[in-house]
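Exercise 7b. C-alpha cells:
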C-alpha cells in the first residue's frame, strides 16, 4: 500500500454532481480538493461530444453496466440501468434532455422533515446552473416556445441548454399542435415549477458547435488548472476510513482507500469526505465501509459501524411504456441511421461536420409533455374513476414514508394541473418487448419508418433496493427496482399509455402516420377500444426503465427511512456526506439531470458554511 495523500475535501466520483462540487469548492484557494473517479477522461470521444451518438456509449467501458434482477411484475425481464463511468459521469452518456422539476415535488421533500428544502430555496440553484439559448424567431414559432420566461429560466450558468434545429422535422410542430387541440398547451415556463402540457424541451447541447454540454465541459474544463484541485482517474474506491474513539459520539471520516491498477492507495481528508457516485455506487460504498443494514453487512463479513437499514433502500425509477407507429413515406426519421445505412450515416455526418446541422445535432427526445390522467377530467365518469384509483393508495401505513409518498401522489392525482405522466417522442421505432440491452432501446428491427411515443410514470409507488453482493468492490450490486409491483403504478401507466392513441389520432399529428400502417407488434389496433386489463398486460410486457434511478441514500429523518440529513451528512457521522441523485427522497418530475445540478450547487453553499464553522 502506497503512502497516504492529503486533501481538505475528498470527492468520490467525478460525475454530474461531483464536478460541480469540485469546481465550486475549489473557488476558495484555501480549500484543497481531490476527486477520485473510477473512469477515464473521454472528452474527445465523438460518442461523448456528438449528441446523436450517445446510444453508442451504453454497454461500453464508459458504462458501469448495471442490470436489474429479474422483475417479477415485468414477466421476469431484466433491464439495463446505464450509469456513466468516466469524467462527467452520467451527464457524459445521457440523452441530454433538460427537464424541469415541479414546485410541489421539491416542497414535498421539505415536508418529509428536511428544513429549508422547498421550491423557494432550490429555484435559484436551478437558474444558477445553466444558460439557455433560444433559436431564431422563426424556429421559436415553429417549436411553440412562447412559454419561455426569461425571468424564470437560467441565463448565466456554466451549463449550456438549447433547442433543436427543427426546420426539417414536421413531428415537432405537429406534436405541439395536437396536444394544444386536446386541451394541453404548455401552461407556462417549465422552470417556473407550475407548468404542464405539451412542449419542446431544451437539451444540454452547446448552441453553436452543437456538442454535448455536461459537467466536465461546463464545470471542470474552465478551471482544471487550479493548483488546489486534482482528479485521479481509474480510482475505484474500496471503502471510507473512519476514526471512532467514543461510542457515544458520531464517527469521523478520515479519508478513503481506493484501488488503481490493482494497487491499493489511501488518501486522508482533513475536513470532509463527499460520496458522489450515483444511485447504485453511493449506497454500495457506504455498505462496503460498514454503514448499512446489520444483516447485510454481517452476511458479507463487514464490520458494522453504523446500523442503518435504510442504506440502499427506497430505490425509485421512472418506468415507461410506449408505442411505435409507421409514418408516411415522405416523413424523415432516424430509422435509416439506426439501421446503419451507409448513405444515411454519411450524409448526416457530412451535414454535421460542415454546417453543424441535421440529425447528428440532436440527442435523445425533445418533443415532450407533462400530463395528468385525462380520464379523470371526463365530466361523466371522471370523478368515479378517480375515486376508484385513489382507493388503491392506503390511507395509512406502518411505514411513515410510504404514507407520505402515498399522500403526495394522492394530491397529484386530485389536481388536474399536476402531471403524473412524462410523455416523449422520437423519430424511430423501438422494441419495447426486448430487454433494452445496449442500444436496443433505439434498435431498428423492421424495414419501415416510424415515430415512437412513450410515457414514463413520474412518481411511482413501487420502490426497490440496491445492495452489495459481496465485500469485493469489483462486484456489482443486486438491483431490484420492483417495477410495477404496486397496483396503482400499473393502473396509471396503463391509462397514460392508452392516451397515446388519442394524441396520435389528433390532427395534425394524425396526418403524419400512414393510414393502416404498422405499429408495435403485439399491440391491439386501438388501445382505447381494448379493456383496461388488456392494456395493463401490455404495459407489463412493454415496460422499460427511463434510466432515472434515485433515492437509495434518501435525504430525510433516519426514523422515516433517511440516510442523510438536510445538509447531506450521513446519519451517525460528523463529516461524511452524499451528494448526488441518491439523496433525492421522492423521484423528480421527469429527468433527474437538472435537479442533480441544482442540488449540487446548493450543497456547495451548505458545505462551505460548515467548513467555515468548523
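Sequence design result:
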Amino acid at each position: 500500500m502506497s503512502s497516504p495523500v492529503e486533501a481538505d475535501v475528498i470527492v468520490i466520483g467525478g460525475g454530474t454532481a461531483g464536478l460541480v462540487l469540485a469546481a465550486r469548492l475549489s473557488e476558495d484557494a484555501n480549500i484543497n480538493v481531490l476527486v477520485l473517479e473510477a473512469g477515464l477522461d473521454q472528452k474527445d470521444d465523438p460518442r461523448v461530444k456528438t449528441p446523436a451518438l450517445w446510444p453508442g456509449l451504453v454497454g461500453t467501458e464508459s458504462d458501469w453496466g448495471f442490470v436489474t434482477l429479474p422483475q417479477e411484475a415485468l414477466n421476469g425481464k431484466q433491464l439495463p440501468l446505464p450509469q456513466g463511468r468516466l469524467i462527467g459521469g452520467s451527464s457524459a452518456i445521457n440523452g441530454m434532455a433538460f427537464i424541469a422539476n415541479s414546485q410541489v415535488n421539491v416542497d414535498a421533500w421539505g415536508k418529509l422533515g428536511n428544513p429549508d428544502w422547498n421550491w423557494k430555496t432550490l429555484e435559484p440553484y436551478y437558474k444558477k446552473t445553466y444558460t439557455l439559448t433560444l433559436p431564431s424567431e422563426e424556429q421559436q414559432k415553429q417549436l411553440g416556445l412562447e412559454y419561455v420566461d426569461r425571468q424564470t429560466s437560467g441565463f448565466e450558468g456554466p451549463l449550456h441548454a438549447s433547442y433543436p434545429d427543427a426546420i426539417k422535422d414536421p413531428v415537432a410542430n405537429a406534436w405541439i399542435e395536437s396536444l394544444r387541440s386536446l386541451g394541453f398547451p404548455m401552461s407556462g415556463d417549465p422552470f417556473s415549477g407550475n407548468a404542464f402540457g405539451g412542449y419542446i424541451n431544451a437539451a444540454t447541447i452547446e448552441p453553436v458547435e452543437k456538442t454535448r454540454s455536461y459537467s466536465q465541459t461546463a464545470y471542470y474544463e474552465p478551471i482544471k488548472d487550479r493548483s488546489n484541485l486534482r482528479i485521479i482517474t481509474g480510482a475505484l474506491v474500496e471503502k471510507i476510513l473512519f476514526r471512532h474513539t467514543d461510542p457515544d459520539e458520531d464517527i469521523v471520516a478520515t479519508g478513503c482507500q481506493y484501488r488503481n491498477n490493482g494497487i491499493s492507495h489511501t488518501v486522508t481528508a482533513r475536513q470532509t469526505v463527499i460520496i458522489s457516485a450515483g444511485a447504485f455506487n453511493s449506497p454500495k460504498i457506504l455498505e462496503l465501509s460498514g454503514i448499512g443494514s446489520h444483516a447485510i453487512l454481517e452476511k458479507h463479513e463487514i464490520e458494522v459501524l453504523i446500523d442503518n437499514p435504510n442504506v440502499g433502500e427506497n430505490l425509485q425509477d421512472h418506468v415507461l411504456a410506449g408505442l411505435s407507429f409507421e409514418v408516411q413515406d415522405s416523413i424523415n426519421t432516424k430509422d435509416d441511421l439506426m439501421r446503419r445505412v451507409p448513405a444515411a450515416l454519411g450524409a448526416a455526418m457530412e451535414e454535421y461536420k460542415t454546417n453543424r446541422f441535421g440529425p447528428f445535432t440532436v440527442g435523445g427526445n425533445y418533443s415532450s409533455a407533462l400530463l395528468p390522467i385525462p380520464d379523470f377530467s371526463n365530466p361523466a365518469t371522471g370523478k368515479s374513476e378517480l375515486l376508484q384509483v385513489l382507493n388503491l393508495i392506503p390511507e395509512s401505513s406502518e411505514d411513515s414514508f410510504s404514507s407520505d409518498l402515498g399522500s403526495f401522489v394522492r394530491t397529484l392525482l386530485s389536481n388536474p394541473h399536476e402531471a403524473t405522466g412524462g410523455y416523449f417522442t422520437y423519430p424511430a421505432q423501438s422494441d419495447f418487448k426486448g430487454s433494452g440491452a445496449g442500444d436496443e432501446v433505439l434498435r431498428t428491427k423492421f424495414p419501415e419508418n416510424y415515430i415512437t411515443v412513450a410515457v414514463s410514470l413520474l412518481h411511482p409507488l413501487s420502490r426497490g433496493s440496491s445492495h452489495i453482493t459481496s465485500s469485493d468492490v469489483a462486484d456489482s450490486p443486486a438491483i431490484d427496482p420492483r417495477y410495477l409491483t404496486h397496483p396503482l403504478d400499473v393502473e396509471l401507466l396503463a391509462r397514460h399509455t392508452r392516451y397515446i392513441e388519442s394524441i396520435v389520432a389528433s390532427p395534425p399529428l394524425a396526418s403524419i402516420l400512414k393510414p393502416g400502417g404498422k405499429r408495435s407488434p403485439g399491440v391491439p389496433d386501438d388501445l382505447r377500444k381494448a379493456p383496461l386489463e388488456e392494456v395493463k398486460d401490455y404495459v407489463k410486457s412493454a415496460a422499460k426503465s427511463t434510466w432515472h434511478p434515485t433515492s437509495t441514500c434518501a435525504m430525510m429523518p433516519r426514523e422515516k427511512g433517511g440516510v442523510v440529513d438536510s445538509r447531506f451528512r450521513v446519519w451517525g457521522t460528523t463529516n461524511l456526506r452524499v451528494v448526488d441523485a441518491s439523496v433525492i427522497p421522492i423521484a423528480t418530475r421527469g429527468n433527474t439531470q437538472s435537479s442533480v445540478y441544482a442540488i449540487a450547487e446548493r450543497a456547495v453553499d451548505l458545505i462551505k458554511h460548515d467548513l467555515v464553522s468548523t
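Instructor comment: Residues 437-442 have pLDDT under 50 and may be disordered. The first strand starts at residue 5 and ends at 12.
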